[in-house]
Amino acid sequence: MSLNNTPRANQLHIGIFGKRNSGKSTLINAITGHNTALVSDVAGTTTDPVYKTMEIYGLGPCVLIDTAGFDDVGELGRLRVEKTKAALLKTDIALLVCCDENISEELEWIKLFRAKKTPFIIIINKADEIPDAEAISGLFLEVCQEKPLIISAKEKAGIKNIREEIMRKLPEDFEAISIIGELAGEEDTVLLVMPQDIQAPKGRLILPQVQTLRELLDKKCIVLSCTTDKLDQALASFAKPPKLIITDSQVFKTVYDKKPDESMLTSFSVLFANHKGDIRYYAESAAAIENLTEESRVLIAEACTHAPLAEDIGREKLPRMLRKKVGEGLSIDVVSGSDFPGDLSVYNLIIQCGACMFNRKYVMNRIGLARAQGIPMSNYGVVIAYLTGILDKINLTA
Asked: Looking at residue 388, what is its pLDDT?
């Protein structure tokens, strides 16, 4: 089993929710077989949500989200509960841990899970300590038609049943959407155009490039990569035009102007827009650019929390392109990481990055929030393709 504390965007996110001292952290340790989470008899030991990445037998790579008790009290407790609710937005499947007969708060959380369409498993913990586990189970079955699992995390009893129930309740579309899809298959030739500018991490490729390349290799494609200045030489090296060209969105127009007519074209950002979000909504929303004026307001949302450098795409290039079309008076706000306003009504357009650092569930929750408030939402690559006049000429879906 491998263990580290870096969340992986394409892994199953399992959120553990419950009251203080219900045994959430003990449950994580029992599931993982490690002393992964800090355990204490003191209520409220876990404060902010903690993300732990592990390989779990039978489930593969997972991110376990250990949350603060949703019965926390006081002003600080209220803030912790808000962060616990925010963690739900990233949760692919929820474990609801309970250890007493007062289930009113648990029932409210079940309503939240259902509203967010998040599969959940009710777990009655501390079966070795509480005498009425079966009675509590009957309450849940009667009120919400869900039969809980009865376990003892401390004694590691019933843990295997949790793994089996997680596999049974996995979302049907979890990891069903590949990055490349049907755009390329075995023995197809693919050209990757990857400019290594100041934004590129030293000595390595960015995550979308790595994950795309890996999937192409798994598909047994024949892959050639180059920087933009070597595009002519790369194209000349093919005996026949590559079936697919995948480029960094920042050089979309340059690559489009030089690509062979026979070659399909897309970008890493567009592929991830489809992989992580709703590409059709993104494409439809790009047309909202035509309605922007200098009195409009745009929100740019990037997943990374890196220190911005010169020519940053989200903070420099996209704003420059938008203002060139709309006017210098256009207001543009930028948020990063998990920062995302709940009230989007002040915006006329939202532009999300490729979201390689987020899981699909979290991105789709953002899209759902925008849709509910009637705000168009698009993506870096889609917007750049629109602004350069080639959106209808590239491949959007995999």
From this structure: 95
